[in-house]
Amino acid sequence: MVAQTPQAEARIAELWVFPVKGCQGLKVEKWPLTPTGFKWDRHWCIVDMTGNRQPEREYISARKLPKLCTIQVDFVKKGNETMLRLCAASMMPLEIPTDWEPYLQNEEIEARCSGFSTTDPNSTGWELGS
């Protein structure tokens, strides 16, 4: 006779997504799942492009800058577009498109995806688009 392993029951008590690394998350009832995880989860990060506070082009973590944890994140609809909105105390909200199309159609907007590896000391960085 083969002993049967008891089956554990799992239940999700809360579901959170964190669109911007280090900033506040969003508690959601349901959320789209992609092949790489939850849609837009840790999709963005704050980067010091000039090297004023952190090494140039390195993402800023909440461990390095705890004030990031005070930035509220939300998604809002503007017509047919979904915008990522960041709100911080005493600052105007910042809204950026979540789709690449608006960046491709407007020469005045520059979108970059760049940074250095935080685990590879020999990293020369990477950059995609502009």
What features would you highlight for this structure?
single chain; 130 residues; mainly beta; two-stranded antiparallel ribbon; 11 strands; 4% helix; extended; disordered C terminus
Structure, described:
The protein is mainly beta and 130 residues long.
For the biggest sheet, the summary is: 3 strands, antiparallel
- CA-atom Rg in angstroms: 19 Å
Count of individual helical segments: 1
Strand coverage percent = 25-35%
SSE-based structural type = mainly beta
* Assembly type: single chain
Q: What separation lies between the terminal Cα atoms?
A: 65 Å
> What percentage of residues falls in helices of 4 or more residues?
under 10%
SSE string, helix = H, strand = E? Answer: EEEEEEEEEHEE
Report the average pLDDT across residues.
81
Question: How do you describe this structure in short?
Answer:
The chain is mainly β and 130 residues long.
Write the layout of secondary structure elements.
Layout: E1 15-17, E2 26-28, E3 33-34, E4 37-38, E5 47-48, E6 58-59, E7 72-78, E8 81-87, E9 94-97, H1 101-105, E10 113-115, E11 126-128
